[in-house]
Amino acid sequence: MAEQQHILHPDFWVDKHSDYLFNFAIARVNNYDLAKDLVQETFFAGLKSAKNFEGKASERTWLVSILKRKIIDHYRKINSIKGQAEVKMNFYEDGENEGSWIEERVPQSWDNATEKSIENEELKQQLDYCISKLPEKYAMVFTMKTIQEFETEDICKELDITSSNLWVMIHRARTQLRKCMEDNWFKK
Fold it and tell me: One MF term in GO for this entry (predicted)?
């Protein structure tokens, strides 16, 4: 059986994909104007690289992959070494040693690898516990999207939900997980 060959239709991108791409971007950057700009940059980059489209993925999947790179580039830009040098971190909060450090000069952790490994395992167990306390559908959506890294479109098809519904469930799951972790892990 021959594999389906997808074709680009740039004239319909805004109508067919802008809402989906915007929702994808806003969930990751949490800034309305930035999300709009990233979608516009995605369309522009798509037009520029249309000749490289091989038709193996759907048009939307291809555009999402471009948008992902735009989002990653955005975060790399704001987290550049130059920017990090200006970030100050509290090291001591009171007493004679109170003060801030420039991030790149913060002393390295004194923990050893064994302690970190034990702590990471305990954290994983606590996170698993908190996920198990979520409503079943929230746990399923959160696990598929965040841990198993399924594409939004695939999750929506599998669970027969809209992308908006998916993001609402993920937001609620994260809120409940944050509360559970604060109550059971961070207060130790």
Answer: DNA binding
Q: How many domains does the chain have?
A: 2
Structural domain including 73 reads: 10-81
- pTM of this prediction exceeds 0.90: no
* Same domain? 130 vs 68: no
Q: Are the CB atoms for 145 and 155 separated by under 8 Å?
A: yes
User: Helices 163-181 and 13-29 sit at what angle, rounded to 10 degrees?
Assistant: 0
- Domain match, 72 and 120 both: no
- The pLDDT, as a whole number, for residue 188 is 52
d(CA 47, CA 151): 23
Task: Judge if 71 and 132 occupy the same domain.
Answer: no
Distance CA 134, CA 173 (A): 7
Residue 61 contacts by C-beta under 8 Å, 6 or more apart in sequence?
151, 153
